[in-house]
Amino acid sequence: MASQGSTATGCSRLWWRMLALHLAATGLTCAAVAAMGHLPWGAIPAALLIAVGSSLVLARMIGRPLRDLTQAARHREDAAEPGRISFPDMTDRSDEIGRLSEALRDMVAALYDRIDANEQFAADVAHEVKNPLASLRSAVETLRIAREDQRPVLMEIIETDVRRLDRLVSDISAASRLDSELVKEGEEPLDLTLLLGQICEHLAPRMADRGVALTARLPTVPVRLTGLEDRLAQVFVNLIDNAASFSQPGDEVAVALSTRDGTAVVVVEDAGPGIPEEALTRVFDRFYSQRPQRQFGMHSGLGLAISRQIVTAHGGAIWAENRAEGGARLVVVLPA
Description:
It is a single chain. This protein is an alpha+beta fold and about 325 residues long. The chain folds into three domains: about 1-80, no CATH class; about 95-165, Helix Hairpins; about 185-335, Heat Shock Protein 90, CATH 3.30.565.10. Helices cover about 60% and strands about 15% of the residues. The protein is built from eight helices and seven strands. The protein has helices at about 1-25, 30-35, 45-80, 95-145, 150-185, 190-210, 230-245, 305-315, and strands at about 190, 215, 225, 250-260, 265-270, 315-320, 330-335. Strands 2-4-5-7-6 form a five-stranded mixed β-sheet. α4 (about 95-145) runs antiparallel to α5 (about 150-185) and α7 (about 230-245) runs antiparallel to α8. Keywords: Kinase, Membrane, Phosphoprotein, Transferase, Transmembrane, Transmembrane helix, Two-component regulatory system. InterPro entries: HAMP_dom, HATPase_C_sf, HATPase_dom, His_kinase_dom, HisK_dim/P_dom, HisK_dim/P_sf, Sig_transdc_His_kin-like_C, TCS_sensor_his_kinase. Pfam families: HAMP, HATPase_c, HisKA. It is found in: Membrane.
């Protein structure tokens, strides 16, 4: 009898060890596994069945969804035909798998949005470059058969188109690199009061040569925030240059800085013709421009689009509005 009891005890321990390993593999706690050692011999098979059943349920609830997500991620790697990646929608789940599914779907959507934006940018570039090239070709062809008195006009057209192409290529190159540079460059603390003061001091003489006054209304104390100083300087130079381009001799461009509700607010105003109501948002689109004909070829139409991209990357906002007394107002709000 003692031998039989010893054998039963040994089998019980063996069953418990096997069950403990299985339960540990399915993720149960050490306390639950240890408690199984105190079960009577007859309860071990039932507990084992429960453990196996729970592992199958867990495999169905966790393993299969993860396998489906993995297969979706690898689908296009193995597919003969290109196409869009589509992850299973498991966002109705409130666990980590549901959140993983949502994150993957959002990531893919953002990726395709970026691809679409790049394709649209390429199409816009092709369109913008095509216009001055067509004008250049026409002027060169006409120059071959033109009379001597017609040549100066044609040469001026060629110079204007070359200048426009040069500006286009430079701005397109800068815009194409902007995304990666915004990610790579490290943000640092800066004083916006000091930065705007230096920019206005630098631009004022050049604008004065064109008869346009540049005034700055800045706080007497530092306005501190974290950002990319060179990129933010690029924004404010763009806005001031934009305002000056719509100004006449004797006009004034005003720059103001203030703080409100934990933000820094920069306002650039001009006394120009203002912006048509339907174009208040379009002015930030790539290559959009309503400049006077005398400035044809001097601007690429990318300045405000680049400015919006930089401001958005800093978690801020930028918009345009018209002044009641005439002229346009461009507003930049940045977290301070």
